[in-house]
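Researcher: We plan to redesign the surface later, but first we want a full-length starting point. Tokens attached.
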């Protein structure tokens, strides 16, 4: 299997190349042990991007975790302590974000 192409910072060049297997490998590289809450965030982000053709703002992911997992507002940052853009977006196969509002 051919490894998807990433940029110098580890973001997928083409988000269509994403797979859960790729996300697991990237999580290992980032030192993240994926839990069901991680997957809930990542799968939501993938679905949002597919529907809206843009990566979701962090506040949408926080709301999703709150509504579906009963998580508090800070759960997203507990899951991805080194940043939404640097970890969550990378694992979800988003392109490198230019700027983010964390809501």
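Model: Full-length starting sequence:
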């Amino acid at each position: 299997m051919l490894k998807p192409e990433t940029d110098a910072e580890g973001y997928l060049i083409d988000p269509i190349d994403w797979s859960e297997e790729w996300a697991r490998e990237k999580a290992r590289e980032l030192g993240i042990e994926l839990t069901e809450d991680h997957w809930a965030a990542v799968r939501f982000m993938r679905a949002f991007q597919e529907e809206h053709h843009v990566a979701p703002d962090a506040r949408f992911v926080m709301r999703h975790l709150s509504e579906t997992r009963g998580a508090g507002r800070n759960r997203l940052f507990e899951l991805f302590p080194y940043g939404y853009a640097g970890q969550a977006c990378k694992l979800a196969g988003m392109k490198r974000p230019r700027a983010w509002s964390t809501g």
